[in-house]
Amino acid sequence: MRKAMARHILVKTEAEAQQLKQRLLNGEAFDVLARKHSTCPSGKKGGDLGEVRPGQMVRSIDQAIFKKPLREIHGPIKSQFGYHLLQVFYRE
């Protein structure tokens, strides 16, 4: 079965996600921003989602994890929980 390792930052607004994405692109550390801003419990672990398999995440995030290029910052991606910034490290 396929699997991937990813991390994300979840925030309430698209504007906040855009601001954080710009900070990431300017070189700020993903894990530090996740701990400070993410509303997801994974934020305490720097946004680390660990290994995920297809179907474990909401559809929009699942598709990004298994189809978007590796090691790039993707998003904002909208879900029923808010707006996500996502980075995928590997896929098998």
Summarize this structure as a short list of keywords or feature phrases.
4 strands; 4-stranded antiparallel beta sheet; about 90 residues; about 30% helix; alpha+beta; Chitinase A, domain 3; single chain; globular; 3 helices
Model description:
The structure is a single chain. The protein is built from 3 helices and 4 strands; from the N terminus they run E-H-H-E-H-E-E. With 92 residues, the protein is α+β, with helices and mostly antiparallel strands. It has a single domain (4-91), classed as Chitinase A, domain 3. Strands 2-1-4-3 form a 4-stranded antiparallel beta sheet, sandwiched between helices. It starts with a strand and ends with a strand. The model has no long low-confidence stretch (mean pLDDT 97). This is Peptidyl-prolyl cis-trans isomerase C.
